[in-house]
Amino acid sequence: MGENILKNIAYCTDFSENANVAFELAKDLAWRYGATLHIVHIVVGLTLVPDQEICVPIELVPEDSRVKIMESATEAAGERIEELYLSRLKGKQHYEVHIIPGYPATEIVKLAKEKDFDLIVMGSHGLTGLAHVIFGSTADRVMRKAPCSVLTVRQKKKE
User: Fold this and answer.
1) The whole model's pTM is what?
2) The CATH classification of domain 8-44+80-153, taken from the options 3.40.50.620, 3.40.50.1820, 3.40.50.2000, 2.30.30.40
3) pLDDT digits (tens, 9 = 90+) for 3-59
4) Residue 97: which region, alpha, beta or left (left: phi > 0; alpha: psi -120 to 50)?
């Protein structure tokens, strides 16, 4: 039998329902191939304006508040990853967690090069509605620029 072709599998999450469906596939592939599962979340530089329902780029927030907001978002992401994913890993499955600030597609592609990912697994849709129209699909951007194969996972349609 030859060498495993998948050694590093990235699972990218925005904590959407669609991303959660992709986790099961990424986890099972990593287990089957004895690969390291890299759980990746990008902390997007947007913040909610208090008492309003709008988000603004983090750069528009005063520096002292910006650091606190990003630290808080990073800590919250770590807690969500532990709660949603780490408890569901199989036995002694190898994994690494990457929580990175920035623009999702750019940071995922950069990490793929740094960590030599063999496969990136992600949900096909995270953002919906107007946000998707404005920002586009992270999965589409990653597929175009990644140095490895990208597997997008669709959520089954509810009947």
Assistant:
1) 0.83
2) 3.40.50.620
3) 778 999 999 998 888 888 899 999 999 999 999 999 999 988 655 445 545 555 666
4) beta
